[in-house]
Amino acid sequence: MPSNCEILCEILIAVLLPPLGVCLRKGCCTVEFLICLVLTILGYLPGIIYAIYVIVFQNREEYFDEYRRPLYSA
What start and end residues bound the annotated signal peptide (predicted)? Predict the structure, then answer.
């Protein structure tokens, strides 16, 4: 679990260069990075919004824990 300071630094980097912020959080060859890159090329603001969404709200590790797995997951 990243600390609040790490998240703040990633958000500041994501505001300056959105794909770089996503790259630091998820990696360079991921779907999230490619979506953020395309959105940034199409428009700077959509890239920032998506990068902040990925950094702050998208945390899949919590949901695939053994105790918190959804019922419909195999």
Answer: 1-23
